[in-house]
């Protein structure tokens, strides 16, 4: 039979680990919500900005390729592109060599947004890093990078069960 203090320590360790991952998820959710509030007056959401950045970096990719890059389903990406196109921020063009493909391009009309986003990001950093030293932020960065590397490695190996 296990020592009660070992069982308590094991449960405490599991509880702390579970709570830490919950908090990472909660911080991610709050970052999204806060960023959306900061840029709402400019008519853009974080999801739309992320899509525009992917489109800008992969100009001329097909809609299907963009959906894959953005890790979205094709239908969801298509709806996102519809909204962005309605706002004049992107355009979709038929592929000259393959009539089945539509290619996605950012338009110059996004230029004013490129001034808004850095200011919103700086405000976001001020809120989320308040009370943390540069050393703590660097340690957090290192810890999260290690966790991401661990998760990506596990997914690549097909061992998401933690064994």
Which tags fit this structure?
single chain, 163 residues, mainly alpha, 66% helix, extended
Query: Ranges with pLDDT <50 over ≥5 residues?
Result: none
Order of secondary-structure elements? HHHHEEHH
Output the number of helix runs: 6
Mean pLDDT: 90
Shape descriptor reads extended
Sheet with most strands: strand arrangement: 1-2
* Count of beta strands: 2
Strand content: 5-15%
State the helicity in percent bands.
55-70%
Give me the oligomer status.
Answer: single chain
Distance, first to last CA = 24 Å
Structure class: mainly alpha
Largest sheet features: 2 strands, antiparallel
Rg over alpha carbons: 21 Å
Task: Write a structural description.
- Helix 1 packs antiparallel against helix 5.
- 12% of the residues are buried.
- Helix content is 66%, strand content 6%.
- The chain has helices at 4-39, 46-57, 63-69, 74-86, 113-128, 134-157, and strands at residues 90-94, 102-106.
- It is mostly helical.
- The chain has a two-stranded antiparallel sheet with strand order 1-2.
- It has six helices and two strands; from the N terminus they run ααααββαα.
- The mean pLDDT is 90.
């Amino acid at each position: 039979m296990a020592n009660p203090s070992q069982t308590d320590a094991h449960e405490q360790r599991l509880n702390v680990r579970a709570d830490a991952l919950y908090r990472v998820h909660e911080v991610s959710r709050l970052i999204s919500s806060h960023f959306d509030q900061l840029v709402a007056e400019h008519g853009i959401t974080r999801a739309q900005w992320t899509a525009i950045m992917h489109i800008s970096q992969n100009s001329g990719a097909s809609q299907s390729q963009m959906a894959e890059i953005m890790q979205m389903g094709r239908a969801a990406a298509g709806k996102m592109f519809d909204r962005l196109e309605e706002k004049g921020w992107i355009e979709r063009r038929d592929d000259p060599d393959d009539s089945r493909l539509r290619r996605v391009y950012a338009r110059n009309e996004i230029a004013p947004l490129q001034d808004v986003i850095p200011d919103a990001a700086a405000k976001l950093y001020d809120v989320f890093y308040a009370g943390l030293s540069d050393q703590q932020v660097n340690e957090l960065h290192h810890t999260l990078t290690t966790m991401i590397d661990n998760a990506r490695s596990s997914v690549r190996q097909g061992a998401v069960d933690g064994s």
